[in-house]
Structures are given as C-alpha cells and as structure tokens.
Amino acid sequence: MTSTPTATDEQAAIHLTPSVSAVPYDHPDARRLTQALRAEQLGLYGFADDPDTTPEADFDPPHGLFLIARIGDDPVGCAGVRLLDDHTAEIKRMYVSGEARGHGIGRYLLQHLEQHAVSRGATRIMLETGRRNTAALALYRRTGYAPCPPYVPGRDHAINRAMTKSLDSASP
User: Fold this and answer.
1) pLDDT tens, position by position, 96-131
2) Residue 17 CB: number of other CB atoms within 10 A?
3) Dihedral through CA 140, CA 75, CA 40, CA 31, nearest 10?
4) Backbone angles phi, psi at 35, to 5 degrees
5) Which helix (H) or strand (E) holds 119?
C-alpha cells in the first residue's frame, strides 16, 4: 500500500466489499498490481524492490497465499502472505490502487491474510513498509501492528519500517 492518492472524506464513508480470490503470484492481475506498487515506491523513494525477484513459490499454498481484490471485474488490490518459519508469517506486496483507497479494501485483504497465517500455525505476523507510506502505517497500527527491529538484513531504518503483530486462533 502507499499513501497517495486517497479517497475523499465523502468516498471514505462508503466501504466497498470486494471479491477476493487466491491466484498464483505470476497471474497477470498480480503482476500488473505488483508493478503498480513498484512504480509508486519508485516515485516515493527513488528505488524499490522488483516484485519479479520474489520467487513465485513463496506464495504457493499451503505455506503461502496471494490474493487479488476485485470490485466487479476490476482488480483493485493485492497482497500476499508467506511463512518465514513454523510460527512466523510475513505480509508482502500489499497494494490497493488509488481509486479504490479509503474504502476498507486494504483491511479486508489484511484480515484474509491473517486468517490464512493462523490456519497455518503462525503465532506472529510481520511486514515491512516505507516510512512515507502514512496510509499503510496508519492501517497497520489500527489493526494491532507495532514497530519492531528490522528483520530483513540491510534495510535502511530511515526508509523502511518493520512491524509485527501477535496472532492467536481468535485473530484478527
């Protein structure tokens, strides 16, 4: 997710319930949305991880999952989760397109990913986002994530923010 643009206050009062489907990470909609995320990150920071370098198998069930959110037939968001170890999951490539932001779609995707992580035995979930990504940081804080030390080697704390949340069978 990124911070700009967002819905107006009037638009934000409308919560859309997207359809959500699991897709392979190499699905055309997944590629298009993850490249849109990368383009926004390049605009914010001048650099970004290339989503094509993430192994597709990281999101293969049962240890991973990649979701596409749609409003009608339009893909408007994506996110993935993968297990880092037996008890820790990681959220990756969370993105909602500009016109769909502010309607609860990011929260909806996050809930689905957390449920999947719990079903796979995860008791903790982690993620990384950029410090300029104020909308994503606010979403993660509202949903119980707290800052934690970086867990990806070589990350710049002036840019990246790592966050974590404890999960239990009642989560989210």
Assistant:
1) 999 899 999 999 999 999 999 999 999 999 999 999
2) 11
3) 110
4) -70, -30
5) helix 105-119
Instruction: Decide the pairing of beta strands 64-71 and 19-22.
Output: antiparallel
Distance (Å, rounded) from C-alpha 24 to C-alpha 30?
8
Q: Between vectors from CA 22 to CA 28 and to CA 139, what angle results, nearest 5°?
A: 95
The whole-model pTM stands at 0.87
69 in helix, strand or coil?
strand
SS3 53: helix
The pair phi, psi for residue 3, each rounded to 5°, is: -90, -15
d(CA 4, CA 46): 15
The C-alpha atoms of residue 50 and residue 150 are separated, in whole angstroms, by 19
